[in-house]
Amino acid sequence: MIFDALMLAAVTDEVSKNVTGGRIERISQPEPLDLVLRIYNAGAKHDLLLSCDPDHARVHFTSIRRDNPPQPPVFCMLLRKYLDGARLVAADMPSGLGERIFVLEFRTYDGETMTLVAEIMGRHSNLILVNGTHTILGAAKHIGRDINRFREVLPGVKYQRPPRQLGRRNPLEAYEGDSEEVFDEKTSADWLVATYGGVSPFLAREAVARSKTPYTERSLWYGLNDALTVLRVGDWKPVIWTDDRGATQGAYPILLRTVSEKLQHRRDSISVAIDHASNSVEQRDTFTQARDTLQSALARIQKQRERDLNDIDQGLKNASRAAEYQQNGDMIQASAHDIEKGQTSITSPDYYSETPGATRTIALDPTLSTRENAERYYKKARKARDSVLSLETRRMTVAADVQTIASAQRDLDQATTEEMVEAIHERVGERFSLRESRQNTDKSDRRDAPPPYEGHKIRTFRSADGWEILVGENATANDYLTTKVASSSDIWLHVRAATSAHGVIRAQNRPASVSPAALRHAAELVAARSEIKHSSLIPVDYTLKKYVRKPRKSAPGQVTYNNEKTLYVAGING
User: Which DSSP category does 95 fall into?
Assistant: First the structure.
């Protein structure tokens, strides 16, 4: 939402008129980057919000109730120590229109001067408490030399204002140029932003809309000063404006020329307008972010499930050749007297074909005997038959997943509130092990939260009956999963005699209770991440984690194990 220098000037005027001389009655910090000062003045209480959120930095009175954390943050306690009961002496923009710096000057009970500075500068926004000797006592964001070597914001350091934008003119001073250069509409706005301090792109477009054509430097200066006349007379006309569907887009302290009059709605004060607009925009942003995050997650899972279906169908197609493999073995046995050692193929009458006179060419391994070649085909036939049941069961599960995703996507397209998105997330989240989709958690907490599993690539799945399954994505992740995450009673899985992912079923000290379906699901996940994933039938060993040992000085992911059992599962296209 727009919060430029003209917006801050309107808020400064409103704050100065309404609470100068008032006393701080309460200080709260509902979010790490938001402060609310309750100021009592002339028999009325006013809640003043100061935010240095990088996306929604702003200052205004608010009537919206905000929940506070159980334990007040350190900065909040610092402010209470120095400002509780202090009297507001002045509210000002000391750098004028050129910089978005808002200052509240307080006088404490013992006569000390304290200054709360709100620097409204996008991602560089900050809230800083300064004492009478211009020494920083604390800040919402501590900025050390490793972040900004020119300007530190740390307790004990002298406060310095942000460097001014050099070379910018004061838009309120008389125009002294003589250029007759003509601009078009876009370059006019760009010129105003680059030439005058405190002019945002939005204000520049408003100035252009008030300027006479042709657009020259002089006509643009007159248009800009027409928009800024309110600064001289204080005749603010705050509005919010909406799009054609009625969704609030923002607030501004003057009537707009760039927005249709029917889409503008007057408000009693600039704070009322900002409070309304910011709440609407933040709710919409939170909903949009939550919806988009869930849509992306579902789309990613859908693509994976579609690939799984294709692989399973290919596996079933290969499994359907069981009869052909059996016939090949029988035909090799019947033609044993015609096969010479080292022969690579044999062509013989196809007694199984309905076409009279048909022949079949069968590939042979020249290093094997006739009996061994026949047995090779019999073994392939047995594997193909054994894999059919596993593949068909797996296909039913994956197909059900695809239907669930499609239903969730349809519901998500029709969702209009964050609560509806959250309900959809709860419905599908556990089945697909989705991360929490809610986006209104504290941004600072998200930044500071350590990555899961110390950053190792370990994926989480959940069986149809609720058992949690963890699978490593690389050697170091496998090593961390087996040695640091898994407990002794968990079930550990690995493909026999082949490189594969390590898998762990979190048994919660009840390994005997783990269902065969969960065990097969875990085995399939491990098999799909092995070097023999395309085989018809893959042996997966499983044992309790307490029987797994990592040899000293061995490579990441290398282990030995015993007391294992073996489960055979179908490969993805074997």
Answer: T
Alpha carbon distance 95, 117 (integer Å): 12
286 within 8 A of 418, measured Cβ to Cβ? yes
DSSP 545: G
Query: How many whole angstroms separate alpha carbon 537 and alpha carbon 569?
Result: 6
pLDDT tens column, 255-300: 999 999 999 999 999 999 999 999 888 888 888 888 998 999 899 8
- For residue 157, the number of C-alpha atoms closer than 13 Å in the C-beta half-sphere is 16
CA distance readout (Å), 297 to 278, 302, 309, 429, 469: 28, 9, 18, 10, 19
Cα-only R_g, the chain: 36
Which residue spans within 264-358 are E strands per DSSP?
264-266, 345-349
CA–CA distance, 410 with 360 (Å, rounded to integer): 51
Note the helical H segments in 436-515. 443-448, 475-480
Residue 134, classified by CB atoms within 10 Å of its CB into exposed (0-12), middle (13-18) or buried (19+), is: exposed
Distance (Å, rounded) from C-alpha 178 to C-alpha 495?
82
Residue 77 CA, distance from chain mean position: 31
d(Cα 349, Cα 250) in Å, to the nearest integer? Answer: 82
- Please give the span between the terminal C-alpha atoms of the chain, in angstroms, as a whole number: 56
Angstrom CA distances, 500 to 391, 437, 493, 526, 540, stand at 20, 31, 10, 7, 10
CA distance 287 to 304: 26
Q: Count CA atoms within 13 Å of residue 419 on its CB side.
A: 0
Encode pLDDT of 185-216 as tens digits: 999 999 999 999 999 999 999 999 999 999 99
Per-residue pLDDT at 386 = 74
* Lookup: tokens for 431: 């089945």
The residue ranges of DSSP E strands in 285-396, in sequence order, are 345-349, 359-363
DSSP-assigned beta bridge partners for residue 478: none
Q: Sort residue 134 into left (φ over 0), alpha (ψ -120 to 50) or beta.
A: left
Q: What is the distance between the alpha carbons of residues 507 and 492, in angstroms, rounded to a whole number?
A: 10
- Distance from C-alpha of 87 to C-alpha of 21, rounded to nearest angstrom: 6
Percentage helix, strand, coil for the chain under 3-state DSSP, each rounded to 5? 40, 20, 35
Length of the chain measured in residues: 574
Band of residue 242 on the pLDDT scale cut at 50, 70, 90: very high
Q: Please say whether the beta carbons of 504 and 482 come within 8 A.
A: yes
395-406 exposure pattern, b = at least 16 Cβ within 10 A, e = fewer: bebbeebeebbe
Q: Which two tokens stand for residue 449?
A: 């939260």
Tell me the β-bridge partners of 118.
102, 127
Can you give the pLDDT at residue 448? 47
Q: Is residue 445 scored above 50 in pLDDT? A: no
Tell me the C-alpha distance between 287 and 236, whole Å. Answer: 32
Helix then strand count (H, E) for the chain reads 12, 22
pTM value > 0.70: no
Average pLDDT of the chain, as a whole number: 89
The whole-angstrom separation of Cα 162 and Cα 119 is 8
Instruction: Give the Cα separation of 94 and 117 in Å (integer).
Output: 10
Helix pair 217-233, 201-210: axis angle to 10 deg: 110
